[in-house]
């Protein structure tokens, strides 16, 4: 899998996958664009949501779901100390045992299958080539 990021203007880039999806990338605060860290956070939250979705739907039915990711770092730092991800699902229609089961099943699935959060936990090596 590869993602192309092409410069489209001053501090403006577009990331594309091989299926034709695009996302705008720019500096923090740039209108209409995600910063690179925001994309990392979106990837972490998206991975949790995609991993947990079917498990929740099977047990709780069609309910609203939302995953949120926040960076953990001192102000002005250029490295994250962590990423906090919250998967919000309304389990109030289930009894306490069923709620606990959903939480446990989703947690196990995310810990076993979510490539993005698993990679972040390992602090994966990044190899940079310039050519």
- Total strands: the figure is 5
Tell me the major beta sheet.
Answer: 3 strands, antiparallel
Query: Into which percent range does the helicity of residues fall?
Result: 25-40%
Q: Please identify the structural class as seen in this structure.
A: alpha+beta
Radius of gyration: 17 Å
Could you name the ranges where pLDDT drops below 50 across 5 or more consecutive residues?
A: none
CATH topology category name of the largest domain: GMP Synthetase, Chain A, domain 3
**The CATH C-level class name of the largest domain:** Alpha Beta
Return the string of H and E elements: EEEHEEHH
Shape: elongated
Strand order of the largest sheet: 1-2-3
Q: Separation of termini?
A: 20 Å
Strand content: 15-25%
Pfam family, one: OsmC
Task: Please give a structural write-up.
This protein is α+β, with helices and mostly antiparallel strands and about 130 residues long. About 40% of the residues lie in helices and about 25% in strands. The protein contains three helices and five strands; from the N terminus they run βββαββαα. Strands 1-2-3 form a three-stranded antiparallel β-sheet, with no helix packed on it. A hairpin with a 5-residue loop joins β2 (about 10-15) and β3 (about 20-25). It is elongated. The model has no long low-confidence stretch (mean pLDDT about 90).
């Amino acid at each position: 899998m590869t993602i192309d990021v092409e410069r489209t203007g001053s501090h403006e880039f577009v990331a594309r996958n091989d299926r034709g999806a695009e996302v705008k990338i720019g500096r923090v605060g740039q209108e209409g664009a995600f910063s690179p860290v925001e994309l990392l956070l979106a990837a972490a939250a998206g991975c949790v949501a995609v991993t947990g979705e079917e498990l929740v739907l099977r047990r709780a039915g069609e309910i609203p779901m939302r995953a949120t990711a926040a960076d953990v770092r001192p102000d002005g730092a250029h490295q994250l100390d962590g990423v906090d991800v919250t998967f919000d699902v309304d389990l109030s229609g289930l009894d306490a045992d069923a709620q606990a089961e959903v939480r446990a099943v989703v947690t196990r699935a995310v810990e076993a299958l979510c490539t993005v959060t698993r990679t972040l936990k390992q602090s994966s090596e990044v190899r940079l080539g310039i050519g």
